[in-house]
Automatic annotation (TrEMBL):
GO cellular component: COPI vesicle coat
Protein name listed in UniProt: Coatomer alpha subunit
InterPro entries referenced in this protein's UniProt entry, alphabetically: Coatomer_asu_C (IPR010714)
The organism's place on the tree of life at top rank: Eukaryota
GO molecular function per UniProt: structural molecule activity
Pfam families xref list: COPI_C
Any one biological process term the GO annotation gives: intracellular protein transport
Domain Coatomer alpha subunit C-terminal, chain residue ranges per copy: 3-149
Amino acid sequence: LKDDPVRQQELAAYFTHCKLQTPHLRLAYFSAMTVCYKSKNMATAAHFARSLLDTNPTIESQARTARQVMQAAERNMTDATTLNYDFRNPFVICGSTYVPIYKGQKDVACPYCTARFVPSQEGNICSVCDLAVIGADASGLLCSASQVR
């Protein structure tokens, strides 16, 4: 990803939405803040700095860096590049393309593992479980004739 800084920023931003323990979440915020700041995406870096400070970081150097990023962003609250990321809109990540599927957008799911995918992945084998066809209608495990639809 060194050749694609925009994608690097997007993946770092998506990672901050994982359900992590607080110390690990702080590292995710710090990483995303640093990557966005280096790419001159000040508004996005300020968001991650604010989120990091909201977790009350125990490492003073992280808190100091976050405050410095906030001060720098206040002078120039713009983004140099446009990211496929909106922290205000809830989303899930596509299991094969790793792009966000925002609330209200069409998506398809794997009938076995329920991973979500963009509609263009329908009909492919699920890249998460490697067992089912994405978007297929599956009835699940049937143990008796009374369970048949």
